[in-house]
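(Structure overview)
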Amino acid sequence: MSSSALDSGFSAHLSDAYQRRADVYNRGYSGYNTDWFLSYCKTTEGYNDILTLGGIDHTASGKGKETSSVELVTIFFGANDASHHIHNKRQHVPLDKYKSNLKELIMLARKWYGQKVKIILMSPPPVYHAQRLQYQIDRYGKEKATGILERTLELSGEYAKVVGEVVNEAENENVAFLDLWTSMQEEDKDGWSRFLSDGLHLSRDGNIFV
């Protein structure tokens, strides 16, 4: 694997590993939660950017014929949805809404990429409190850092649990669960913070782990 891919996100790793065998499309958007992403999908830009990738024709003449070449869809939301409802109200999505949004994303994937498309739902990663507090100091300075956590390990764990529930309730066997919240902590019980760059976002090691 090339060093440039290793220094990028996990989608770049996959693209490098599957070069000349598969195209990897990254449609992750910085800061987005499930509400914002679903709203984007309903716009003309979002439709053209995301939903047309499967090539399925839902026009009257096409009659919904499944011609999609998409083999796998990964759905990775929750780090922003799990923001504290007071300390980061702007990005927070309540648990019940988050759950229904994930189900809607699965339905969209099946509609536009085919009923047989394989789907992996990925939980939010754990949150490392010390890194988040240090990030505040690094970004805003010691005097302006609030010392209040806008995201916590406990909250991200609640949202990770909901992802597992959605997978268990899925209507067919083509939906799998990648529980990053649990697996990262179990992989390195004393040093799992290495998977995160600022207590929230994936580091180089974190992307490789995914």
Observations:
- The mean pLDDT is 90.
- The first strand starts at residue 72 and ends at 76.
- The chain is about 40% helix and 5% strand.
- Residues 95-113 form the longest helix (19 residues).
